[in-house]
Design a protein that fits this description.
Chain lengths: ~450, ~170
């Protein structure tokens, strides 16, 4: 009731009636700041007030925002490419070649799309690593927090990002694309019993042909981005439901009840967070001016800087780094060496080394290294929040003592994956033989 | 809700509600089922597995690679055999490398002159001249296919759906 009285002093109008219909990025009062969030569709997913530590550059490194910005940029740059690209085996290669060499700025749009996609894989992986190292999938002090499920959603989004990248890889229909997809889908067919059926469903037949191209195209432009967009919305909503970033849990709780100044207007925070399953954060702490700031402009300003910075970086990189286009896809000639996209090279390295012979019985390395091992890793990643037994108090803390062992395990696995990637990327030559960077590759004829 | 006092009326509403919900679920499930089923191919327009390769006399002594069929055809005088060029690991096309010194050997009771070995560019699998996997991740040997002579025009025929063991030879009189 107190805030109603306070509101009456703000202006002559009745409660709930606003003087101005417009909202501002530079609000003059707390009320205007709240209005910005409530009356703007995009800003609506932010809380009106946000805990100061959540905004720190060096806590989250804003990697989720960067990933989201990259996803948005990929949609933006993908749209014009859809007008120019023709998903047919006869014309796909030529249309990509036209985009690269004939269409004005086509090369730049393609480079933005390609570099954005590569960096999105990087930023999503880094984001996952950040959440792991800070234990941000743990539930802190709030009641009804379900952060572990947001982590699971995150793992699903990582897989979608990889699959989006992989489906886009085929579209130019060049040698690089064709053989990466040959190897990738043959890994699927190494699953006992159902493998060949899975591959047939994936590529729409028994050979990589028109049916494969159109499948990957539709997955790439509609199904996967749609699914990812939906999950991003859910991911953001869950962050709100879970009481914001994990680092804010500590400041969200007041040791003892204390008086705070009356808030001059209603806040969306009260409406949005203080429902049944929301964390039992005391409204008084949310309102406390020493631990919170208005989302507009403090959060929006930083978000804009991150988004603009991401766009600028990609634009500049795209102007400097060209996109490769190899010879047209040729089912008759396997390039030598034939390498998978860089983020799958560690798997290619593993499938090379994991064929096991037990007497007369042989397990194909493709199944062990391409299905079982990544399956186990993904399962471990997914269920890690339930395996993590560290105390709740370290939620949102970088490298706490009590999580040292699991952080070391995570780093060790990551280092192995990076090592395999480096070997696959730089140290493998024709016939997948090992070559040091200073060793020249032997001349191998392109055809027999 | 005064209507809830009337048990018959509640039943009807309840029934219609369940009917509507059920119909909605069935409709969505049927639509989803039909959509997904349509993506399972009923027909695949694969290349034919039995292919005429040309008159036997046109094959050189030694090895000839046929890229369209992804098969190596070997000739030693009047005998022929065919080995697949599809790596058994992940399906890349292997390359033949001539041996500096051909070896005479016996495979499954049949004499065989090994003139080449096979190497896969994708993951480095190696096969000996009879197609046996000797190194790398390949889990089994390269397939051998049945060769025959076409009765109508005497051309060599390979049947890519008919795997044979390593003792198979086609001898043309």
């Amino acid at each position: 009731m107190k805030f109603l009285q306070k509101r009456a002093q703000d202006g002559p109008e009745a409660p709930g009636v606003h003087q101005r219909r417009l909202w501002s990025f530079r609000p003059a009062s707390d009320r205007e700041a709240g209005d910005a969030v409530v009356s703007n569709l995009v800003l609506h997913w932010f809380p009106a007030k946000i805990y100061k530590p959540s905004l720190a550059w060096t806590y989250s490194f804003w990697l989720g925002t960067i990933s989201g910005a990259l996803f948005f940029l990929l949609i933006l740059s993908g749209l014009p490419l859809m007008f120019l690209y023709i998903p047919s085996v006869e014309r796909a290669y030529q249309s990509v070649k036209d985009i690269e060499y004939v269409v004005t700025f086509g090369w730049w749009l393609r480079a933005v799309h390609r570099i954005g996609a590569h960096l999105m894989v990087v930023s999503v992986v880094l984001h996952l690593a950040r959440v792991f190292f800070t234990g941000a999938y743990k539930n802190g002090v709030g009641e009804g927090q379900r952060r572990e499920w947001n982590w699971v959603i995150g793992v699903a989004m990582l897989l979608l990002t990889l699959f989006l990248s992989f489906t886009g890889y085929l579209l130019p229909w060049d040698q690089l694309a064709f053989w990466a997809v040959t190897v990738g889908t043959n890994i699927a067919s190494s699953v006992p019993l159902v493998g060949p059926k899975i591959r047939e469903l994936l590529i729409g037949g028994r050979a990589i042909e028109q049916a494969t191209l159109i499948r990957f195209y539709v997955l790439h432009i509609i199904v996967l981005p749609g699914a990812l967009g939906g999950l991003i919305a859910y991911h953001m909503w869950r962050i709100r439901k879970d009481g914001g970033l994990a680092i804010a849990d500590g400041v969200g709780v007041l040791e003892t009840a204390r008086e705070t100044e009356a808030v001059p207007s209603k806040t969306y925070t009260l409406l949005g967070v203080a429902t049944g399953t929301a964390p039992s954060v005391r409204a008084s702490s949310v309102e406390a001016s020493d631990v919170t700031v208005n989302a507009v402009p403090d959060l929006t300003r930083r978000a804009m800087i991150v988004i603009l910075g991401t766009f600028a970086l990609i634009s500049i990189l795209a102007s400097a780094i060209g996109s490769p286009l190899e010879e047209p896809a040729n089912a008759l000639v396997t390039p030598n060496p034939a390498k998978a996209p860089w983020y799958f090279l560690w798997l290619q390295e593993i499938v090379t080394d994991t064929t096991i012979k037990l007497g007369s019985f042989t397990i194909n390395g493709a199944f062990l290294g391409g299905v079982i091992l990544p399956g186990v890793l993904i399962a471990l990643l997914t269920f890690w929040p339930w395996l993590d037994r560290s105390p709740r108090s370290v939620t949102g803390e970088w490298f706490p003592r009590s999580r040292r062992t699991q952080n070391l395990v995570f780093i060790a696995i990551t280092l192995v994956i990076i090592a395999f990637t480096v070997v696959g990327l730089f140290l493998r030559g024709p016939y997948w033989h090992f070559y040091w960077p200073w060793e020249a590759w032997p001349g191998i004829p392109g055809r027999i | 809700m005064s209507d809830s006092q009337d048990p018959n009326r509640t039943d009807r509403r309840d029934f219609l509600f369940k009917l509507g919900t059920g119909a909605g679920i069935v409709a969505i499930a049927a639509q989803a089922g039909a959509s997904l089923r349509s993506l399972v191919p009923n027909v695949t327009y694969d290349a034919p597995t039995t292919v005429k390769l040309g008159p036997p006399g046109e094959f050189p002594d030694g090895l000839k690679f046929l890229p369209d069929e992804r098969v190596f055809v070997f000739r030693a005088g009047k005998t022929f055999h065919a080995i697949s060029a599809v790596c058994t690991h992940l399906g890349c096309t292997v390359r033949a490398e001539a041996l500096s010194r051909p070896e005479e050997t016996t495979v499954q009771g049949q004499p065989l002159r090994l003139t080449h070995r096979f190497m896969c560019p994708c993951h480095g699998s190696k096969y000996s001249g009879d197609g046996t996997n000797v190194a790398g991740p390949a889990p089994k040997p390269l397939a051998w296919y049945r060769l025959s002579v076409s009765p109508d025009d005497g051309q060599l025929i390979v049947d890519l759906a008919d795997e044979v063991d390593q003792s198979f030879r086609l001898t043309i009189a």
